């Protein structure tokens, strides 16, 4: 199998179709297993898709939602992925009730790992749907190229890893590579020509070079992943 490319002429059409695709996966999971697990990325890309997804009628009380990664800031901080998710996706009370936050009052994500991991016990494993973004450097989740913690997060047997990327403005907590790639469905959501070009380049380079691109390390292990993109 190979990557499933879904191209759209505009971001609105992408957001709508991606929301429908995610909702279908969640409905199937609920029908088959009684509940569904969804992990979404933050950043600037997903807000429109979140709004489309929240308007889809499904039993949100049976969907456990969490984040793929989070900046180590409080949930009301402008850079918080949780804030983005609460403002755009978690408008349904049932969805907000089942949301699993990745932050607490600890000074660093390293100190919080055990407690946050315990919170995620309610998340179905494997996660049913993981939605990934991608940075202009090929990072995904909070797995950054050439960051010392990348190898640890790629080898970890844990669900979460704490990273302090040299290139990110905040310390972060992130799903590890193994927990991402063992998900039932991995979707990459990008909305720029530069990211499309980078992703195509990352997929075209030989594996040794591609190690620089965490997104490639994910997709090498999830060859059937879906890529939703619009220029
Ligand atoms: C984060 C995200 C990260 C994001 C990419 C793309 O916390 O920043 O999880 O992996 O998906 O950086 O971000 P944009 O959507 O802002 O380009």
UniProtKB/TrEMBL annotation:
Alphabetic keyword roster: Hydrolase
Pathway(s) it belongs to: Carbohydrate degradation; pentose phosphate pathway; D-ribulose 5-phosphate from D-glucose 6-phosphate (oxidative stage): step 2/3
Catalytic activity entry: 6-phospho-D-glucono-1,5-lactone + H2O = 6-phospho-D-gluconate + H(+)
Known EC number: 3.1.1.31
InterPro entries hit by this protein: 6-phosphogluconolactonase_DevB, 6PGL, Glc/Gal-6P_isomerase, NagB/RpiA_transferase-like
Gene Ontology biological-process annotations: carbohydrate metabolic process; pentose-phosphate shunt
GO molecular function: 6-phosphogluconolactonase activity
Record bears the keyword Hydrolase: yes
Protein name: 6-phosphogluconolactonase
Organism, scientific name: Chitinibacter fontanus
Lineage: Bacteria, Pseudomonadati, Pseudomonadota, Betaproteobacteria, Neisseriales
